[in-house]
Automatic annotation (TrEMBL):
Keywords: Iron, Iron-sulfur, Metal-binding
Cell membrane recorded as keyword: no
UniProt-recorded name of the protein: 2-hydroxyacyl-CoA dehydratase
Similarity annotation: Belongs to the FldB/FldC dehydratase alpha/beta subunit family.
Entry cofactors: [4Fe-4S] cluster
InterPro entries: FldB/FldC_alpha/beta (IPR010327), YjiM-like (IPR047678)
Organism superkingdom: Bacteria
Pfam families (alphabetical): HGD-D
Signal peptide location: none
Amino acid sequence: MRLLKNLPEIFDSFSEARKNGFISAKELKDKNIPLVGTFCTYMPQEIAMAAGAVVVSLCSTSDETIGEAERDLPRNLCPLIKSSYGFAKTDKCPYFYFSDIIVGETTCDGKKKMYEYLGEFKPVHVMQLPNCQKGEKSFELWKSEIVRLKEKLEEFFEVKISEDKIKEAIILKNMERQGLKDFYSLGKLNPPALSGTDILKVVYGATFKFDKEQCIEEVRSITEKVKREYEEGKRLDSKPRILITGCPIGGATEKVVKAIEDNGAYVVAFENCTVSKANDLLVDENKDVFDALAEKYLSIGCSCMSPNPNRLESIGRIIEEYKIDGVVDVILQACHTYAVETLSIKRFTNDKFNIPYMAIETDYSQSDIAQLNTRMTAFIEML
Ligand code: BJ8
């Protein structure tokens, strides 16, 4: 595929994908394609894809409906949960509106309790996620939950989900992950080829492009174009290189990336669900499909796991491969698991790699932008 537009236009077209949600979700419904809404990276998307459904993330990233959510839920709750609930309650999210069923997992306490209320608006299926990545019992529980999801979707959509179909979905989803990985791995280039803002536009935007084959093709073409232009000498300035880790980022929380890049550094890598947690590890195509899916998804290094060594392993690898100068941990307000984990991430980055670390607590409002700029300026000056 040839890309005729220039790179900034192409990056913006990925950002537009989410905004065009109503039209694209309606087009799917007009074609009778089922829509499965999810809130978490643990959801084994291949099962829904094998049922012929399209999977869409419902994690909301704007504060538009938080006021409405606070009428029902505590104020001192993570904005991702309040906002997601608020969009569901007010019917303002086209993806929620058009979803046939919601699949959730027992991750953090707030999210799993929210699913109980979402059942008032839509059919909800909750997968019981173990609290620990290691051990046969955790693996068997998660594998059996994946089989239970398959049975639920078979019954709900009145389809047969064969292992061959799951295998096909695994291969397609792996191609998408590999394509995105090749793209965001461009962050390893030093000096950088593109900003963290642009990396995020493409990777986050790709989750709202429902024609997977076309999306894979587009992402591959962008990667080639960026590489070609880099070789021709189109490079950004050398600046301190930042790794963002922590809670999912996107929409309102892009303010953190902006504050870093407006104040003298580039974000070259994202160790969170928006980017690497979802895509770094592929599903093994040579194993039993349920074993392979259980293995891949259970290895996600989310702070709801205890202990959570996979997150440290992933952060360590990124620090080395991307030549990171500083780590910024983004914590959504009232996210206890990520907030408590800041201590171990700080110790890990300071002691093992001797690089500066900063934790930022934020929400979906724009009221802390001045404070973010001040803190980022001070942090980047240290690097
Ligand atoms: S796999 S990071 S998408 S749970 S920020 S709602 S943890 S209180 S979003 Fe997440 Fe899945 Fe983990 Fe990823 Fe709770 Fe924290 Fe809010 Fe969170």
